[in-house]
Design brief:
316 residues, 15 helices, single chain, mainly alpha
Length: 316
């Protein structure tokens, strides 16, 4: 599900696009932002389906070897432990995955390159060889094997990441988050799972999550000029256009949360935007952003502008 950190990243991307676009339609950019939420879930579904594609590559290989001209004993009686892995079977029969994928028109039918490449890579790995030669066929071992190859091989594969970037340029920013979601989904699967096993939800609370994103997006735009003046007053000897645009944007978002989101503790907002500066801006940005926001917070406290609901939210 989308965490508050991830929602802030999505709002940041939407605001970046808005401020760099000649089209200043707030409604249009907001619509694109919410569409990006749905696209993140599409990526989650693509990756779950990809796990099944990997299994099917193993099945195809077994079928091909059985009918070759001079089959070996291992071709005629292959080791089927990989293709019979119980985690594959549970994901493959999941009705929610099938219905959501169909509704969103998601499939790997037209992409016949990525899965075979990954299957060969997996088949050459020590994890695969060790798994196949181990006579133990417990559910626990099946789950551990799928988690290991997903974490170590599938999620790290550059060709697969390139394939996703070709489908949607924003998925490069989403892939780490969605990979963690797929791993959590695998970890959550119980041995008793049937075709009704619920998948991860996109939202923790759809109404509340969408309201947070919408309010943050709109209020940053509404108070943009005022917040620029606040920032300019604290950046001595620096013209605003000489400061990295991303630093200014992250400071505007933080200021908006300080002043217009009464239920979010100041310390939470401060830490979130310092972390985003580390991830999305220059190496020195987090120190710079922290310094300016600290100065602004001191002024806001002195002026009584930090109106938080609940005891301790300003100090915390």
């Amino acid at each position: 599900m989308l965490s508050r950190r991830f929602l802030r990243i999505k709002v940041m991307q939407a605001l970046y696009a808005f401020f760099h676009s000649e089209d200043k339609s707030v409604a249009k950019h907001e619509k694109e932002m919410f569409a990006s939420f749905e696209n993140t879930y599409n990526l989650y579904l693509y990756l779950l389906l990809f796990v099944i594609e990997i299994r099917d590559c193993g099945r195809n290989l077994i079928a091909i070897r059985k009918v070759k001209q001079l089959p070996t004993e291992s071709d005629i009686n292959p080791n089927t432990k990989f293709v019979e892995n119980k985690i594959f079977s549970i994901i493959a029969i999941n009705r929610q995955l099938a219905s959501e994928s169909k509704k969103r028109n998601i499939s790997w039918e037209k992409d016949n390159e990525a899965a075979p490449k990954l299957f060969l890579k997996i088949a050459e790995s020590e994890e695969y060889k060790s798994y196949l030669t181990n006579d133990n066929r417990s559910f626990k071992d099946d789950k551990k094997f799928i988690s290991d190859i997903y974490r170590e091989i599938i999620s790290q594969d550059e060709f697969l990441q390139f394939t996703f970037e070709e489908k949607n340029i924003h998925w490069a920013d989403d892939i780490d988050f969605v990979n963690s979601l797929v791993l959590k989904t695998i970890d959550y699967i119980p041995e008793s799972a049937n075709d009704n096993l619920p998948l991860a939800l996109l939202y923790k609370d759809e109404k509340e999550d969408k309201k947070f994103a919408k309010d943050l997006f709109e209020k940053v735009i509404e108070y943009s000029e005022e917040e620029e003046k606040n920032i300019q007053e604290k950046t001595e000897n620096w013209e605003l256009d000489r400061i990295a645009f991303m630093d200014v944007l992250l400071m505007k978002m933080a200021i908006t949360e300080f002043l217009y989101f009464p239920t979010i503790p100041v310390k939470v907002s401060l830490n979130e935007y310092i972390e985003l500066a580390k991830q999305y801006s220059t190496p020195k940005s987090s120190v710079f952003v922290n310094g300016i926001l600290d100065k602004l917070l001191a002024d806001y406290k002195k002026e009584g502008r930090l109106q938080k609901e609940g005891r301790g939210l300003v100090e915390n």
